[in-house]
Specification:
Elements: H1 4-21, E1 30-34, H2 38-50, E2 59-63, H3 72-83, E3 89-90, E4 102-106, H4 118-132, E5 136-140, E6 166-170, H5 175-178, H6 180-186, E7 188-192, H7 209-212, E8 229-233, H8 240-252, E9 257-262, H9 267-273, E10 278-281, H10 287-295, E11 298-301, H11 309-321, E12 326-328, H12 331-338, H13 341-350, E13 355-357, H14 361-367, H15 379-394
Parallel strand pairs: 1-2, 1-4, 2-3, 4-5, 5-6, 6-7, 8-9, 8-11, 9-10, 11-12, 12-13
C-alpha cells in the first residue's frame, strides 16, 4: 500500500516533468493557486519542486479555503515550504499584479462535485483573465470547477471553471473530461500513472486513434461481398441528404456493399452521387424488406424517414423483425418516443437481437421525458439507465 504522501510526491513530479518537457524557464513568473484539500497539497508540492529551478521570489502561492480544515497531507506540504522559507498567502492577499507566465491550478480535484462559488469562483475568473492575457495555465488532475464524474449538477446553471492549456491527470481519464464541457476547459490532457490502477473501477471507455488501427482489415484477395453488408432504411421526399449521408458513411466505415431502402423520389439522387449503392423502396413487411434484412450484416433505420404512415409501419416492422444489429436514429427514435419503446427493445433483447440508440439532445429528452434530472451527457445517468435496461431484460 503506497502512502498518500508518496502518491502526492509522484503526482507533483509528474506535473513538474510535463512542465520541463515544455521548456520551463528559470525566468518565469509563476502563480500557484492551492485549495485546502489534497489537490491543493499537490499544488504545494509542485511549488516546492518549481523552487528547484525558479527563484522563490518569482513563485507566488495563493491559499484558498479554511486552513484549519486542511488535510494532514496539506499541512505536511505546507511545512516543507516553510522550511525553505517559501511564502504562501491566503486569498486575496498578495495576488500577482502583472500577468504570470505560468499558473498552476490546484484548487479542487476529483473529490469536488459542486460548482465554484464566492472566493473560489472569483479566483477561477482571475486565472481565466490572466490566461486571456497570455498566461499558460496547468490544471492538476482536473480543472477546478469541472464536475469529474459528469457534466454539471444543474443543466440550467452557468458554471465557473478554470480554463486550462494543459491538464495533467493521474491514473486514468475522468468521465467529465471527455464530454463537450470537459473538452472545452481541459486543453491538452496528459495521463500520468502514479499508482497501480488495477483496483480502479472502470466507468467507461474512450475510443482513441490507436483503437482504430487495424479496425477494418481487408483480405488482399477478397471482394466486396466479404467486407460487410449494410442496409440503410432512410430518406424521404425532401430528405435525400439523410439517405446520402448514411450511404457514404457506411462505405466510409469499410462496408463492401450497401443497400438503401427509401422512397422513389430519393433513388435518382442516390444513384447519381453514389453509383455503387443498391436501392429499393421500403414498405412494411414486403418481400423486398425481408430479403434486404436477410442479405445484410447490420441495419440502420430512421434518418430522414419522416412521420408518414408507411415510414412508421416500416420502423416498427424493422424493430420487431430485423435479426441483425440495428442502429436506430432520428425518426426511428421519434417513433420510439411515441410508443412503449422499452417493451419493443426488451423483446429484441430477449430474441438476442442487438440494438443501438443514437439520440441527439432533443431526441434523448423525448425518449426519457418521464425521468427527472436527465442529462444526455451524464455518463452516470446513462449507466444507470443501461443497468435498469439489463434488469428489465433479465426479468
Amino acid at each position: 500500500m503506497i502512502s498518500s504522501i508518496l502518491l502526492m510526491e509522484r503526482a507533483a513530479l509528474s506535473v513538474y516533468d510535463e512542465l520541463l518537457k515544455r521548456g520551463l524557464s528559470s525566468s518565469e513568473e509563476v502563480w500557484v493557486v492551492c485549495g485546502h484539500g489534497n489537490n491543493g497539497a499537490d499544488g504545494l508540492a509542485i511549488a516546492r519542486l518549481l523552487s528547484e529551478k525558479i527563484p522563490s521570489e518569482k513563485i507566488h502561492i495563493t491559499l484558498l479555503g479554511d486552513e484549519d480544515k486542511a488535510t494532514e497531507e496539506w499541512h505536511m506540504q505546507r511545512s516543507f515550504l516553510k522550511k525553505r522559507e517559501i511564502e504562501a498567502y491566503p486569498y486575496p492577499d498578495h495576488l500577482p499584479v502583472a500577468v504570470p507566465d505560468l499558473i498552476i491550478d490546484a484548487v479542487l480535484g476529483i473529490g469536488s462535485d459542486r460548482p465554484l462559488r464566492s472566493a473560489y469562483a472569483e479566483c477561477a475568473q482571475k486565472i481565466n483573465g490572466f490566461r486571456k492575457e497570455g498566461a499558460y495555465v496547468v490544471s492538476v488532475d482536473i480543472p477546478s470547477g469541472l464536475i469529474p464524474s459528469s457534466v454539471k449538477t444543474d443543466p440550467a446553471e452557468e458554471l465557473t471553471v478554470v480554463s486550462a492549456d494543459l491538464t495533467v491527470t493521474f491514473s486514468a481519464l475522468k468521465p467529465g473530461m471527455l464530454l463537450p464541457l470537459g473538452r472545452k476547459y481541459c486543453g491538452e490532457i496528459v495521463v500520468r500513472s502514479v499508482a497501480d490502477t488495477r483496483s480502479l473501477k472502470t466507468q467507461g471507455f474512450s475510443v482513441e486513434k490507436k483503437d482504430l488501427c487495424g479496425f477494418v482489415k481487408r483480405n488482399p484477395d477478397g471482394n466486396k461481398s466479404m467486407f460487410g453488408k449494410v442496409l440503410s432504411v432512410s430518406g424521404s421526399n425532401g430528405m435525400a441528404g439523410a439517405a446520402l449521408l448514411n450511404v457514404r458513411a457506411a462505405f466510409g466505415a469499410g462496408a463492401g456493399m450497401v443497400t438503401c431502402l427509401t422512397v422513389k423520389e430519393v433513388i435518382p439522387t442516390l444513384l447519381l452521387m453514389v453509383p455503387s449503392v443498391m436501392t429499393g423502396e421500403y414498405e412494411n413487411g414486403s418481400a423486398l424488406t425481408d430479403d434486404a434484412i436477410a442479405w445484410s450484416d447490420a441495419v440502420l433505420i430512421g434518418c430522414g424517414l419522416g412521420k408518414g404512415e408507411n415510414a412508421q409501419k416500416t420502423i416498427r416492422y424493422m424493430i420487431e423483425h430485423a435479426d441483425k444489429p440495428l442502429v436506430i436514429d432520428a425518426d426511428g427514435l421519434n417513433y420510439l418516443s411515441l410508443e412503449n419503446f422499452k417493451d419493443l427493445l426488451i423483446e429484441r433483447k430477449k430474441k438476442g437481437f442487438k440494438t443501438i440508440l443514437t439520440p441527439h439532445p432533443g431526441e434523448f429528452a423525448r425518449l426519457f421525458s418521464d425521468k427527472e434530472e436527465i442529462s444526455h451527457q451524464d455518463p452516470v445517468v446513462l449507466m444507470k439507465l443501461a443497468d435498469r435496461s439489463e434488469e428489465h431484460t433479465s426479468e
